[in-house]
Amino acid sequence: MLILGIDTSCDDTSASVVENGTRILSNVISSQTDIHTRYGGIVPELASRRHIEMIVPVVDEAVKRAGVSLPDLSAVAVCRGPGLIGSLLVGCSFAKAVCYSDDIPLVAVNHLEGHIFSVFLETPSPEFPFLSLVVSGGHTSLCIAESFGVYTELGRTRDDAAGEAFDKVSKMLGCGYPGGPVIERLAEHGNPDAINFPRAYLPGSLDFSFSGLKTAVLNFLQNNGKDFPLEDIAASFQASVVDVLVRKTEWAIDKSGVGKVALSGGVSANSLLRKKMKDMGHKKTVEVYIPSSALCTDNAAMIAAAGYHHFINKNFAGLDLNPGASLRL
Ligand code: KG4
Ligand code: ZN
């Protein structure tokens, strides 16, 4: 079964053809980083305009690279949210038009569910149930994926998402957007023990909080900025985020008794997080699944992977589908 996935939730226009929910035939991503970099963050209006320009060539390219044509598709899976409403509208409207004109079934996928399903695009992949930590620019969410469509939330961020903290700290340091890769590169040459930034473990809760850490970095910069190497600030900040994410996942394993962990979302491209999460899994004899970096950040293959399950469960969307900017999992 061939599913065409479409994701326009934020600042990447992406389309992908995936076979049987696991085998990627094509995964085309048109990044908008060059447009937003000069503003130090995503400008929603510019993002949606760029999606309008790119959606046709990106879908064309995905179909061409996969060696298929539209009538070969079993369904079109589109991300309906959460995300930027103007951006989501482009993907949803386009997907509806394709389904209408070629008489193809439409399925709607939650962006977070897409991130959870990115682990099924790699081998080995976990069997249900597994713990899923999604860490991205908009979300930090810990849940038990019990089975397809059944997700028990254990914790989420109370303020900033982990990726958002990386982006904001990068901006404070005067570095570029997106912040995660920039901070990671700086941190490679820095001392993670140089500054003891706070770690909000929130004992007794599996929620997260990163706004205090962000403020601590801001205060530190105001008091010491010029005297301190940026590399040490980046490394100490990164160490704090990673410690919290790994420790809380460890608590979730203890609390739930679930012995498999899947990590996904843009921040899971971070090498230190990947290493520390794997070390923790090794220590606790728990299997840890992390997709390759290209499948951690936004992509349409993950939307097609989750869409496949909607399709085989006959969970179709109508042509009156509307996106939801604040959709919950
Ligand atoms: O999943 P994603 O592509 O988009 C959302 O759904 O938000 O995640 C983007 C986020 C950004 O905040 C970016 O700074 C962060 O992921 N990110 C990283 C790394 N690569 C991307 N954070 C830390 N280390 C990285 N290597
Ligand atoms: Zn995402």
Describe the structure concisely for a colleague:
This protein has eleven helices and ten strands.
Keywords:
globular; single chain; alpha/beta; 19% strand; Nucleotidyltransferase, domain 5; 329 residues; five-stranded mixed β-sheet
Structure description:
The strands form 2 sheets. A 5-stranded mixed beta sheet has the order 3-2-1-4-5, with helices on both faces. A 5-stranded mixed beta sheet has the order 8-7-6-9-10, with helices on both faces. It folds into 2 domains: 2-116 and 296-312, ATPase, nucleotide binding domain (Nucleotidyltransferase, domain 5), CATH 3.30.420.40; 124-290, ATPase, nucleotide binding domain (Nucleotidyltransferase, domain 5, 2-Layer Sandwich), CATH 3.30.420. Helix content is 43%, strand content 19%. Helix 5 runs antiparallel to helix 8 and helix 8 runs parallel beside helix 9. With 329 residues, it is of the alpha/beta class. It starts with a strand and ends in a 17-residue tail after the last helix. It has 11 helices and 10 strands. It has helices spanning 33-36, 44-66, 85-102, 111-117, 162-172, 179-187, 211-224, 230-256, 271-284, 293-296, 301-312, and strands at residues 2-7, 12-19, 23-31, 75-81, 106-110, 130-135, 140-147, 150-156, 260-264, 287-289. The structure holds 5'-O-[(R)-(carboxyoxy)(hydroxy)phosphoryl]adenosine and zinc ion. Zinc ion (ZN) binds at residues 111, 115, 136, 265, 298.
